[in-house]
What does this fold into?
Amino acid sequence: MSTRRKVTLKSSDGKVFEVEEDVIIQSQTIKHLIEDDCADDGISLANVTGEILDKVIVYCKQHAECKKNAEKSGYKDNEELKKEDHCKNHERFMKVDQETLYDLISASSYLNIKSLMNICCQKVADMIKGKKLDEIRKTLNIKNDFTPEEEEQIRKDHQWAFA
It folds into this structure.
């Protein structure tokens, strides 16, 4: 029985993770480092904490498992299975506080994991959907740095967005 190749990942706070290569290559950043033979001594991820890296690995494992199940089930493009499984997994996975969500967005960008970035951004979109401008600012902790005159001009120029 052959053993799967493992990749060592080191978080910014010194935590070490051993992850199967076929799981973690969902990260284009890590995939390129492996292809360029830069992963033999481990990969240091200066912009990702251990807590967030652990969550990213969980996501990648779930995503890889879903893909494997789709292939076993004979789905050619696996869209139907992905929709069913991903919705359940993503819903559970995305039950995080706002700070963790932003850290996941940052990590998915740094690691270049498009599918993770997509579900994180969808979560943010769901958080602000249907809210008024002031509510969005409060939800996302955005300071209004426009003068009243500038804000009035923006509202005039973009009336369609404020209807």
